[in-house]
Amino acid sequence: MPHPAHPRFCGRDQELAWLRGHFDAVASRDAEGRYPGPRMAVVLAESGLGKSRLVQELYIRLTEDPHWDPPEYDYWPAAFGDGGVNLTVIPSMAGHVPKGPPRFAWLGARWKSPDERNALERRSVLPGLRESVTAHAEVLRSHGSAWSEVVRRARAVSREEAVGITADVIGFPFFGVALKVFKNVKEIATDLHRGPKHFEEVEKRHIKPEVDEVVDVMRELLDGRGTLPTVMWLDDAQWIDPESLQFVNRLWAEARKRRWPLLLVVTHWERQWRELALAEQAGTVNDTLYDYFGQEGVDLLHLGQAESGALREYLVSRLPGLSAAQQTLLVEKAGGNFLTMVENVGWLIKNPLNFVNRDPAAALSDAGARTAQKWESDRQRRVTQFFGDLAAELQELLGWSSYLGMHFLREVVEEYAESKASRPGAGERLAEAVDPLVILGRRNEYVQEFRDKAYHDTASKHFREYLEEHAAELEAVLRRHLIEWINNSFDAQGSEIWPDESRGVAPPPRSATALSNAERRDLLDLARRELPLPDKPNWENPQDLAALRAIYLSIITDWRDNRWGSVLSLGNALGEISFEALPSTVISLADQEWLADTAKTAGALRAAAGIARAVLAHRRRLQGELGTPESRRDVSVSLNRVADLEQALGELPAAKAKYEESLEIARALDAELG
Fold first, then answer.
1. Cβ-based burial of 127 (10 A; exposed 0-12, middle 13-18, buried ≥19)
2. At what angle do helices 589-602 and 199-206 cross, to 10 degrees?
3. Structure confidence by residue, pLDDT tens digits, 185-209
4. CB atoms closer than 10 angstroms to residue 630
5. For residues 306 and 331, what is the distance between their CA atoms, to the nearest angstrom?
6. What are the beta bridge partners of residue 298?
7. CA geometry: angle at 594 spanning 592 and 597, to 5°?
């Protein structure tokens, strides 16, 4: 069932046929079984005109097509029917159990505005893209053996009935991805528990430019047996970063060369596209998405204002009792913008007094009609007017939310409202801003986001004009929540708690380690911004613990995503920290050893040496207390780690002395234990 606030797909049939035609073209084979090659469909529109909804509908139609997702396979979950409440570009596989392997792939990435208060950088979406592929490798690993009989029967049917799909496709797509991903996971797990490694060995195995690595993953998906026709949706691409653009360039070139069945769908604001065109023509920029304009296989769709008939169709589906004149009035007030229409309908149904007999299925009351008559039809003016008509309490909540950023932790606003500002019921009010007012959407269970930047800007203006005195207290609540999220991720021994189903380990729900890589990175970016590490940390202070742990978790997150440039930068930031004074209950000694190895691998040699020397000092103290063979062995390993780093730094006499001491310990242990 569609979400009640969700605009039904109305009036874009011609545009959908255009988009579906591109998919059908890349997914068709010639008489020799070859694909024709990739296509790029660029959808240009201003906010609220339905470009994302158009792409979502392609997914819905493909998953309803028995050829592309037959009921006996049911690989893809129902998605995008929630009214845009969840602001995602890929369906969540959580809670959905596929019955068979997919016949097409749906991947996606979404950029965020680079001027958000809580965004540290214009971030590459490559980790998210890779994550969206590898999620399906995990599904394959979990269900592949159970699908064998389904695949065998499908192959038989395709041969007997000449079904237009080859046995290659009815197989185990993502198989190459699964092998690659789980081989890497095994190596990563091994790295976490082994001693120091030579830099050259790690470099050879793990360090590869991120663009190359994600192209490799796509190659596994789109090359050879098990190839899947693939849709990759790049949303809000007006904010594309240089690294992601480099990936698109590489992917497109290889897809054309190898004739991959790839449909790249790019959604982009139209005004920014025109600005790119002018800048390219003036020679002030180069290497942008506009460079694809005019290339073979690239098609542009300018999504104009919605037709009156389409807006009327949606209106009748939501408010069936309106008179013809009332329908005409509301269509006019929408100004050709679907999102404005959805917001206006939400505003009306929020107050039963807007309808005859207080029945939303009836006509508008005189009061409701007078209200609608006053509405602006221009989108920007309507947003300003709409915000001004909200209850003062909701304006306040949205103002506080905007101060936290375009996306924000909902719980921070709720706690501040209820405990600091004596505004009970904040959760219900924010839920109202999601549905029916559709001002906010959800990124996940904890994070909400302004659906239209115009609302964020308007709420921010309201904050600056009326709510500035709340800034310090609001930040204090935010810091407290961030401290809790970060510190919840560690046990009493200073080891981070990662989910591990095989051992029944589940981190606390409100912990950074419980989040996906992409969501965790958002939280950690915000934590590093709001919780700066002081020059002289107090390790009894939970905030200072969280500040260091946020850097440490950021390094792990970026290491997992092969973002070595970021690991280097974060590793160098640790060079000022005195790890010798750091209790092992903040970050365990084993984790500090891993941190030193990883910082070294990234090239942050001095920071790595400082951490390794601190670990060695801890190991010596423990050896003095315990005097066991195991504690002596640990000292020997730490000596080797420090010596490796000192050798790399050119401190050869110091390195030689430590190697000799380590060798002496090893020989003594050998003689003692045989």
1. buried
2. 80
3. 434 334 433 333 433 444 344 445 6
4. 10
5. 10
6. 40
7. 110
- Whether 616 shows a pLDDT value over 70: the answer reads yes
Query: 2, 230, 77: which is closest to 69 by C-alpha?
Result: 77
Q: Which is it for strands 447-450 and 407-409: parallel, antiparallel or unpaired?
A: antiparallel
Contact between 238 and 268 under an 8 Å Cβ cutoff? The reply is yes
- 573-588 per-position pLDDT tens digit: 888 888 888 998 999 9
> How many whole angstroms separate alpha carbon 401 and alpha carbon 412?
9
Q: Please tell me the total number of residues recorded for the chain in this structure.
A: 674
Considering only CA atoms, which of 267, 337, 336, 300 is closest in space to residue 57? 267
The position carrying tokens 């939280």 is 523
Q: What are residue 232's phi and psi, to 5 degrees? A: -120, 115
- The CB density around residue 510, as the number of other CB atoms within 10 Å, is 16
**Chain centroid, CA 180 distance in Å:** 22
Please give the backbone phi and psi of residue 271, each rounded to the nearest 5 degrees, phi first.
-60, -40
Would you say the C-alpha torsion 533, 534, 535, 539 has a positive or negative sign? negative
Residue 641 and residue 196 in contact, taking contact as beta carbons nearer than 8 Å: yes
* Residue (of 187, 177, 166, 190) closest to 144 by Cα position: 177
Encoded tokens for 115: 């001027």
- Which is it for strands 440-442 and 447-450: parallel, antiparallel or unpaired? antiparallel
| Amino acid found at 608 | A
How far is Cα 341 from Cα 315, in angstroms, rounded to an integer? 8
Higher pLDDT, 114 or 255: 255
Q: pTM score, two decimals? A: 0.76
Q: How far apart are CA 75 and CA 268, in angstroms?
A: 29
How far is it, in rounded angstroms, from Cα 89 to Cα 233? 7
Judge whether 266 and 234 are in contact, CB under 8 Å. yes
Range list of β-strands (E), 145-281:
230-235, 262-268
Q: How confident is the model at residue 142 (pLDDT cuts 50, 70, 90)?
A: low
Pairing of strands 440-442, 230-235: unpaired
At 540 the three-state DSSP class reads coil
Distance in angstroms (rounded) separating the CA atoms of residues 300 and 292 = 10
Nearest CA to 263 out of 467, 40, 421 is that of 40
299 pairs with which residues across the strands?
41
Three-class secondary structure of residue 364 per DSSP = strand
Residue 182's alpha-carbon distances to 60, 95, 560, 663, in angstroms, are 30, 22, 13, 36
Average pLDDT estimate for 15-25: 94
